[in-house]
Design brief:
The structure holds 2 protein chains of 2 kinds. By secondary structure, chain A is an all-alpha fold. Chain A has 2 domains: 65 residues; 64 residues. Chain A is built from 4 helices and no strands. In chain A, helix 1 runs antiparallel to helix 2. The chains are: A mainly alpha, B mainly alpha. At the A-B interface, helix 3 of A face helix 3 of B.
Chain lengths: 130, 67
């Protein structure tokens, strides 16, 4: 069981890393590598999307190796993060639409917020149960 | 939920690690159950019941005020 778990963690690490690489390629490739050839850009976006799906499947596989308490901790953290992401994301969008903030709303900031929220929720829930 | 898991485990001379291995959960889960911070699933409770040779209700004590 432990070996399977380690294997699924390594697989998730691999797919996460390759997703980041393909995301960087799709983001910077058009400007710095293939000089805005749209066929390469479409290909890079599709590869990144497929890679993302594989990353989600790897995450699911790893999740299935968790025991019941670990699942509870992660599910509660995910629920809290989802709620916060919707509330904060919509508020952030509203601030942009009503011009209460000077800069354009960036999706990257929301993704960063989601990551930090999940990490904090995980730490709090681990402290609660462990 | 109040329980007597620690007591029954010690009576059988098992460590948390060994009980976790037999039941198929992590040591942290056994610790959380013993500290009454976490209530196990029904399959886990049944596995413990089989191992301890006691009915579930004899070591998991249901309180009516439990939320």
């Amino acid at each position: 069981m432990q070996i399977e778990r380690k294997k699924s963690t390594v697989q998730l690490g691999f797919w996460t890393l390759s997703w980041l690489v393909t995301l960087a390629l799709a983001t910077f490739g058009p400007k710095f590598i293939w000089d805005d050839h749209s066929i390469f850009t479409i290909l890079a976006v599709v590869v990144n999307l497929v890679n993302g799906v594989l990353m989600i499947l790897a995450n699911r596989k790893m999740f299935n190796h968790y025991d019941e308490l670990e699942r509870k901790i992660h599910l509660e953290s995910m629920g809290l993060t989802l709620g916060l992401a919707i509330i904060v994301g919509l508020t952030y969008s509203l601030l942009d639409q009503t011009n209460l903030i000077q800069s354009e709303a960036e999706i990257g900031l929301l993704v960063g917020f989601i990551g930090i929220s999940y990490l904090i929720a995980l730490l709090i829930n681990r402290r609660r149960y462990l | 939920m109040k329980n007597k898991v620690r007591e029954l485990r010690k009576m059988r001379g098992l460590t948390q690690e060994q009980l976790a291995e037999i039941i198929g959960v992590s040591r942290q889960t056994i610790n959380a159950i013993e500290k009454e911070k976490f209530d196990p699933s029904l399959p886990t409770a049944f596995k413990m019941s089989k191992l301890f040779e006691s009915p579930i209700e004899s070591f998991f004590l249901f309180d009516e005020t439990y939320r």
